[in-house]
Amino acid sequence: MLFETNTKVNVHVMQTGESYPCATNESLLQGMLRLGRKGIPVGCVNGGCGVCKVRIAEGRVRVLGPISRAHVTAEEEALGYTLACRVAPTVAVRLEVAGRLAKPISKGFAAQANHVLTK
Amino acid sequence: MGVMRIGHTSLRVMDMAAAVKHYENVLGLKTTMQDKAGNVYLKCWDEWDKYSLILTPSDQAGMNHVAYKVEKDADLDALQQRIEASGGKATMLPEGTLPSTGRMLQFNLPSGHEMRLFAHKECVGTDVGSTNPDPWPDDIRGAGAHWLDHCLLMCEFDPGKGVNKVAENTRFFIDVLDFFQTEQLTVGPDGAFQLASFLSCSSKPHDIAFVGGPTPGIHHISYFLDSWHDVLKAGDVMAKNRVRIDVAPTRHGITRGETIYFFDPSGNRNETFAGLGYQAQRDRPVTTWTEDQAGRAIFYHTGVLSASFTEVYT
After folding, report:
1. Is A102 contained in some domain?
2. How far is it, in rounded angstroms, from Cα B205 to Cα B3?
3. Which of A56, A73, B120, B267 is 20 to 30 A distant from B304 in Cα terms?
4. What is the ipTM of this complex?
């Protein structure tokens, strides 16, 4: 990336304290993935599954595509909730991870799978 | 009695143009029909009925319903009686409810998913025809999927509260729809709970599958390819089209399928897989995968489950 010319802004994930540079022409999630970083849960990266739900606490973002209303209601969107895979930062952003994976999942396949892998 | 194979799935998509482009260019389906409501109907080159996928415009992803084809029209009446005798409700939708499709028996599975059965759909033939056919057509695009093969439904699973819709669906499919179980993954003390279940109504290792999770949904719809090489080529097609790949090519322990998983532009998961695995028969002993081997059951090579594969669905 010697000749990287895309404008980059800083994205700060409040829960984990992690920060990463994200281009203003890529989604908050793609920027994180491209760097091989972790912080926001990653799912379909297409606005449908809802696991990368975040709340934009500070900064501004630009919408890149539709987000599933099953995961972000219009009311929530007005409060700053969105899916990290479908917004690009226009300025530096501080965000809070808000998806269902942000809470510990105590039931179902996920818990069973983790149980299998950790015992 | 009656059920032959999966007939179609109806999926919700949030960007119709992107969805059609994906299913045409990446999977290789062709659009056969559109209706006034904006729904788009597609089929694979090796399928003979008019469509196997309905894309419906929506503000969210997920599955509207899955439909299976029965052999004879009278099977619909017989199955309606069996569903009602088992305590369920079933509604006969008149011919034309879906275009080019006969009457459909509509009901909800114990898991809540909407299922439909039909006996008639307009036959348009495969792309190589039925008289002295070539093995494949010249205009194959993308992965060139042969046919919609099966789907995997996520079903509510919370044994602590006595909820196991995987087991309930399995019972319903065996007792009422006359499927048979081929494989299962069990968890808990002495494997008391069926976490995943695979059922057949043909000679394939699965025609439908159920896996437990916190909420109901669609985990994936799956398309058949000829060979492992075709699975790798499908991966190339996805890379060329910047498709989000969820699971890179590997093999399942369950069903022995060679597979790659990816997402459509609305986040609905797709699979293309190769290998018919083994001959599934009603008298073949059911294969059981135990909790300590769940990783290998799902991803045979690494034995490691990825979080997105088990936790993400629409």
Report:
1. yes
2. 15
3. B267
4. 0.89
